[in-house]
Amino acid sequence: MKKTTKKAIAILSAAAVLSCGSVYAAEYDYGIANPMLPTGEVEIMPVPDIDCGYLKGTMTVAEIGETIVGEDDTRLYKADGAFILNDRGQALTYDDIKAGDKLTYYVDGGAPMTLQLPVHYSPAVIVVATEGSYTEQVIGVFDEDGLAEDESLKLNYDLSTPYFSHTREAAFISGKALVLYENTTRSIPPQTSPIAIVKLADDENIPPFMGHGPQAPEAAAPAYITGSFEVGENGETLVNKFDETHVETRIYKNENTLIINKQGEQKTFDDIKAGDRIIYYVNADGPMTLQYPPHYTAELIIIDDGEDVSAILGNFDGDLLDAAASLALHIGENTKIYGADGFNGGTAVVLYNFATMSIPAQTTPIAVVVMANQPKAPSPADIVPDMTGIKKIAAGDKVLDYIPVTVNGVQMLPVREVAEALGYEVTWNAENRSVTVGFAGFAIDEDSYAFAKMAAQPLGQAPVLIGLPGASSALTYVPAAFFTAIMNCQMTVSGDTLVITPEG
Question: Is the pTM for the entire model greater than 0.85?
């Protein structure tokens, strides 16, 4: 451990300056006095940065026992109620953390803290880095429009955004939060569609609700920029009512923009008057000008005429259940549908005024606007290599013999052999002819594969039972894409061997 004669700054002084300015953390260098060293000597111990009332630190895991021990000898208690996730927004447990993992941890600066060496923390949140991923992590206080208190970042999220909270909120509304994201626009303020949001403890007295928030498929949700403003001018563009507290925003008048009111009635730009409040939706994957003030071409504008009607942007499955499993739609004969002849799932903005108190809530929407930017279902051909000529499978530390199997042109793998070689537990349920692989599951003859609470997805072929020559019983085969799209493994080909590497 490094020694120095620099004056020590006790860790208690760090707690005295916890503040929340910019969502970008400041960096501090603290030393902690060690009474075992000679007088005047100070042992430099790793002390986290200070970020919006939370201590933020990083470590590489050396060992896992009663505590998580870092290579720098920092120790994390296994705190009850701590949120654990990876930097792709997927919920984890302490059992998922392994030696060699790189962690970012967040400690509530207002919580009790032990004064002992080596340093011990009780984390509120742990984020596990995934290989090859680079994710920004910031803490800020955000308002109902997703704008940070210092206007340094604006969040564009919906019910499909993975959300972690100890409250019963279905989605983040406002307050202090840890946000994971990758890219931002070049606008002022920069805007982003978060990978995940973790609600942090505020001054609010909220009864605890233990458990993780809803999870969404990792790459299912197309990005939309959404916002609202009071119209100040309707001229060549729509301009917000501008003052020194707001960024000026302009929306082009485009013939392809759908304009409706909260009753789902179609309107035109001429119907929008100064003083009206509008909600706009912009395809973030579409062309965008780099100019100031921000100029947008909206795909949808809703005139907020004061009606008690909710408008949400969501990703719905074939049963019209949103990806957060919090709202189910029942299309009625009076439901107006824009953008398609009917709605069978996908990305849509939904207007509704009443919902049941059930879980999930159910509603007959006033209107459904099917958005142009729809999720793209994974294609097995895109996510697995060509297995022509493969004779062996290297999975984990085992090498398996392999007889090439295709069903309806889809490359298949024996699920139990491969999964157990990778270290996953495989369970067969004879009653409903279903299989669980770790946290994943599927049923024979159903092209529907799910991981944990994520929405199930098809892979182009249902699982099948196949009896091969010399085998005493039939084996369950799944599309090779099961191990990439569902289990998040990596696949490469080396000569005549298919190499499968588990996540992490």
Answer: no
